[in-house]
Amino acid sequence: MSTARTSTLASLRGSIERLEAHGDAHDINKIALGHKAADAVLQGGLALAAMHEVFAEGHQSASATGFIAGLAGRVSPRRPLVWVRQDFSEIESGALSMSGLCELGLDPRLLVTVRAPDTDAALRTAADALACDALGTVVLEMWGQARQLDLVASRKLTLAAAASGVTALLLRVAAEPRPSTAETRWIVRAAHSPPSAPWIAWGAPVFDAHLVRNRHGPVGRWIMEWNCDERLFSEPAAYPQPLAATPAHRPHQAAIIQPQRRAS
Fold it and tell me: Where are the annotated segments for Disordered (predicted)?
């Protein structure tokens, strides 16, 4: 290993150790998600100027995209958002829909999307964006294991977010979690929306959100509903339990003749 690389690694380790030494959970600036149970476990909400990971299986990429869009909407509803995607992500899951993101509560006028040809270019672009303190959030969407996104690259993104105050959200699709400096790590799946009125085309987005890493506390798993108008997560209303309808062919009780028992 070259002297320059050794020096860089030592500098990164020193910087991250100083951040961890002073990173008390109560001193970190946070934004409440709106879901009471999740905010309680997170001791106030999602940490700003930090890095968070959201993982999804390949067929759950749409759910994870919606969840991370909700996180971005909570973190910086009025500041620009840069969304960095690999070309391969668009091939596998399709292009981002501006109308869809608008339905989720994001302002398309504040959204800048960047298509990167490969993993290295995506990492460089995300790091450059995180250095711009005029932004509110940077989403880095990676498909597959992406071996370049190792612990060193993770630390660089965390340090860039801490230095600029911009929050980094990593969307990992079809990948296995690996060691990182992420403040939180989520595994997200789709959940059933509660029944809605007949004149409503679809219900609110509902997620099965499993918090599997929390640097400052316990973990948990919740069903979280995203309110697109208020731009916050909440606990879904209890599903009504409809009564079973009486079968149409069932005879009336008066017509039923009960057999009489013969006295012994």
Answer: 243-264
